[in-house]
Amino acid sequence: MAFTFTRLIETNPMLLKVLTVVGLASFEFYAAIPAGFAFHLSPLAIFLSSVSGSLLGLILTAFLGDRLRLYFSKKKELKENKPRNSLIDKIWRKYGVIGVGILGTLTVGAPASVAVGLGLNGSVRKLMIWCSIGILNRCLLFTVIAHLGNNLFGNNLFW
């Protein structure tokens, strides 16, 4: 009998649940943790799956975003440097890569934070480091909050 992915899923249904949480975390983090609890995964499995998926989304966004930035920088003509006074520029000047990496990851997510940081000419390496730290904090925080809420209100909170 040939080995197929379908056969693997049929013999191990928990794998599909974990892969679903990983996939959700890679592009929409806020749906991943409740889905993990709805699938009755352990908090550790939810944490590891959401960290893995979020890091996967971060790597894809950073790689593609950096390539797009290089492509557009070659095509873009040099413009006059105007003073920039928008809110995001003020935040960037005040908090820098660390603020975008940690605070941005907690609020809007890692892919959006990387995109903003790359748009403001941030270092890809520094953005990856600080967004990874933000991902670990965010996943730990929201997994613990969801676990405590699930224990407080009963195990039927997420389904």
TrEMBL record:
TM segment ranges: 14-33, 45-65, 95-120, 127-149
Keywords: Membrane, Transmembrane, Transmembrane helix
Protein name: Small multi-drug export protein
Native species: Paraflavisolibacter caeni
